Amino acid sequence: MKFVILALLALASGLHAAELNLKDLGFVLFGKHGEGSATTVKAGECPLGKLPDSVFLHKTFKKGENFFTWVRPVHGKVHKLVCGSVAVWEAAAGEVLVDLHFVGKPADVKLLHLELFHPAVGSHHLFLKFAAAGALEAHLGMGAFVVAAHGLVAGLPAVEGLPAHPFVHALAAHAAHAAHAGAAGKDGLGAHGAALVAA
């Protein structure tokens, strides 16, 4: 059923889609958001913050100086992602942005996961690494992305309140593998770790 709904959205995605600037969203802290309890949302305001029409959900978790941000757009309403003057992603014909996860901090290396849907190939993923200055540095595989996320933010899966998302499960699986495999598990997944991440 989800496939059918997303396929219909993909067919109509270009009708009302717009550009989304991630810099305008910022980092919104409320409820359980990691190590802190202070909120950036003022009393009486929507806890999701001031969202553009193209965004359904936006929440940030903080660990140390790093952020884990989850953005769920209104499916079919975002055809292009930018961050200030940096181009991040632009939809192919019929492509729909389903979910977005950001790991890192503005002044350092940043990682971005995009879950996408296209009628021809179904659900697929992009794993991007950006340099501290903001330029795109590399397209990563999922295993390398998960390892890099742990390199940036140790203990990320233990942050309280993270959403029950397959990407978060992959982070937790790799953390368990790294603890079991020791130093080898931190630098490379190996057969066992790759199987865990793919699960």
Describe it.
- The protein has 199 residues and is of the alpha+beta class.
- 28% of the residues lie in helices and 32% in strands.
- It has helices at 2-11, 22-25, 142-152, 166-181, 183-187, 190-198; strands at residues 18-21, 55-63, 66-73, 78-83, 86-90, 96-104, 110-118, 122-130, 136-140.
- A six-stranded antiparallel β-sheet has the order 2-3-6-7-8-9.
- A hairpin with a 5-residue loop joins strand 6 (96-104) and strand 7 (110-118).
- Helix 3 packs across helix 4 and helix 4 runs antiparallel to helix 6 (190-198).
- The longest helix is centred in the C-terminal third of the chain and has 16 residues, at 166-181.
- It is globular.
Describe the structure concisely:
This protein has 199 residues and is of the alpha+beta class.
Radius of gyration: 17 Å
Helix content: 25-40%
Number of helices: 6
Q: How many strands?
A: 9
Distance from first to last alpha carbon: 22 Å
- The structure class reads alpha+beta
Beta-strand portion reads 25-35%
Question: What is the 3D form?
Answer: globular
Strand order of the largest sheet: 2-3-6-7-8-9
Low-confidence stretches: 3-14, 185-199
| Series of H and E elements | HEHEEEEEEEEHHHH
- Compute the average pLDDT: 78
Keywords: Signal
Signal peptide: 1-17
